[in-house]
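Something for you to look into today, if you have time. Could you write out one complete protein record for me, on any chain you like? The space below this message is yours for that.
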Amino acid sequence: MDSSEPSAKKSKKSKSFQHQWYDDNPEWRTWVKECLSDSEKFLCVICNENLACGRFEIDRHSKTKKHLGNLRVYSFKNSSFPNVVLPEISSSVCSQLDSSSSLSSSELQFNERVKAAEIQFATLIAQNNIPLSTAPQILKLFQSIGKEPAVLQKMTV
């Protein structure tokens, strides 16, 4: 091949961060930031990751399961909690709550303690930016360790 002929391969065009993208996508201002260490990447504040730059790449990332899951936690963590959506309650729990007059006070207190523990757990997950996909594994660990309260009480970090 003669050196004056153009290469058959397309050269990959580098995409650097463009602040003008915010004009067309104002919602990006809250979570897309310029990566200071590499102009060809952007920082996703929600996922705390540096990713390849470009409008298409940012849009594609915004639709990933990981980003959407982290967005839910991020939104919960950074809100004043006015629009908190609580997890759905199973129909059996609903029927128990509907007939709360038939529940003994100890059962009602137990259900309240369970709900309080669930809220504490959700808060821990949100405040520490732990991926929601990890929460069920952590809960199973707590449930396993909790079978021996004395062991749980003696645990240290």
